[in-house]
């Protein structure tokens, strides 16, 4: 089921993958370089509804408009705020999520929007090759239970680069060998399918632990 939502940044689009007996909604947006066809988003949308989690994949207004370049973070946040009432309409707790730039949006707006938790897929801790330009403050400032799923070879931040934080601030799942889009090379010791299973199983376990 696809729903178009008017926002102050233009029309956004939600593609719903509903659970039969939902207890949570996972709302997830794409990154700055792709859409909701990303392998991790597709895998979660296929796996979670069977376990009581409805998945809402959100296309930001710039993607709906057919533009190739993402706008400034402030505009992305505006688009996310605009779709939030539709995401919350089922009356269930909403986990705010996204991959890459979408993960940053989820972290920045979680407390303000009343998100139940945050799922950050491929959090871009820093621009490639520029670890000094850290975005850790966005992640640490989410203010709600947060799960980071990160590729072991992500040039935007490998798991070992993430800062230590007080217990309960965030948890991190590493996907070995994976890059920023969770692609694994053919020579890796795990297959692409196994990498995606790591992601879906980890997210399922985490959503099951949320009160």
Describe it for me?
The structure is a single chain. This protein is of the alpha/beta class. The chain has 6 helices and 8 strands, in the order βββαβααβαβαββα. The protein has an 8-stranded mixed sheet, sandwiched between helices. Helix 1 (39-47) links the parallel strand 3 (24-29) and strand 4. Helix 1 crosses helix 6 and helix 3 crosses helix 4. The longest helix has 18 residues, at 192-209. It is globular and about 40 Å long. It starts with a strand and ends with a helix. It holds the Pfam family Abhydrolase_11. Residues 24-206 form the KANL3/Tex30 alpha/beta hydrolase-like domain. This is Alpha/beta family hydrolase.
Contiguous helical run count: 6
Rounded radius of gyration (Å)? 16 Å
Read across the widest sheet, the strand sequence of neighbours is: 1-2-4-3-5-6-7-8
- State the end-to-end CA separation: 28 Å
The helix/strand series, from N terminus to C terminus, equals EEEHEHHEHEHEEH
Give the fraction of residues assigned to helices: 25-40%
Approximately what portion of the residues adopt beta-strand conformation? Answer: 15-25%
Show unreliable segments: none
Largest sheet: 8 strands, mixed
Label the overall shape: globular
Rounded mean pLDDT score: 96
Please count the beta strands (DSSP E, at least 2 residues each). Answer: 8
Structural class: alpha/beta
């Amino acid at each position: 089921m696809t729903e178009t939502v008017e926002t102050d940044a233009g029309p956004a689009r939600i593609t719903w993958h509903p659970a039969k007996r939902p207890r949570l909604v996972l709302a997830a947006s794409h990154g700055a370089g792709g859409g909701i066809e990303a392998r991790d988003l597709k895998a979660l949308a296929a796996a979670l509804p069977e376990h009581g989690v409805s998945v809402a994949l959100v296309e930001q207004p710039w993607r709906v408009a057919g533009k190739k370049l993402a706008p400034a973070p402030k505009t992305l946040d505006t688009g996310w705020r605009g779709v939030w009432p539709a995401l919350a309409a089922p009356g269930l707790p909403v986990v705010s999520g996204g991959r890459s730039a979408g993960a940053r949006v989820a972290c920045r707006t979680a407390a303000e929007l009343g998100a139940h938790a945050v799922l950050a897929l491929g959090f871009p801790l820093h621009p490639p090759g520029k670890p000094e330009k850290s975005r850790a403050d966005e992640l640490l400032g989410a203010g709600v239970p947060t799960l980071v799923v990160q590729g072991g070879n992500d040039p935007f931040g490998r798991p070992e680069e993430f800062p230590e934080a007080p217990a309960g601030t965030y948890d991190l799942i590493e996907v070995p060998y994976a890059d920023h889009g969770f692609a694994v090379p053919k020579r890796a010791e795990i297959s692409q399918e196994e990498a995606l299973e790591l992601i879906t199983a980890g997210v399922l376990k985490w959503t099951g632990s949320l009160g």
